[in-house]
Amino acid sequence: MSEYLMEMIGYQVQGTAEWRRAKAEQFPDDQRNLTAAEELDELAEQIEQVASSEQIHEQIAELQDSIASADIWVDVSEAVSAELRAVGFHSGYTTAREFLEWYRDLLQEKLLEQIDEVVPAVNLDEQIANDPAVKAAKRAYDEAYAKAYAEARKKL
Length: 156
Description:
The chain has helices spanning 3-26, 32-49, 55-66, 70-86, 96-118, 124-129, 132-154.
């Protein structure tokens, strides 16, 4: 059993299952809520069984430890909530691994966003255009082209 995964994502899955059960009581004619709650219960049980030695567990733990921004955690929480609300209605997961891979990918995406905020991406086109060696090569090319063009025009 992986208490770490349950704390980070499993309890949110269980909470969404409870919410779906409340919706099933509120809307008894719509069986999707009860079906979704059952799917979410199964998903939570599977997450609880993921061993801490499994690679997906290690990847998620490493990514979670790398994300420092509270704003990013708000984004992650909102994305997970939306994804879980869609289970049984617009999407679903047949295994905990499939859901955990989605979660891992979400964390990777958010971590890259965090890195991009701290270390802006270099504009390679500008960097190349301003490189002295590139400028010299371009100047030499332009001069050789102009000379060849002038000589070709003389022959006409």
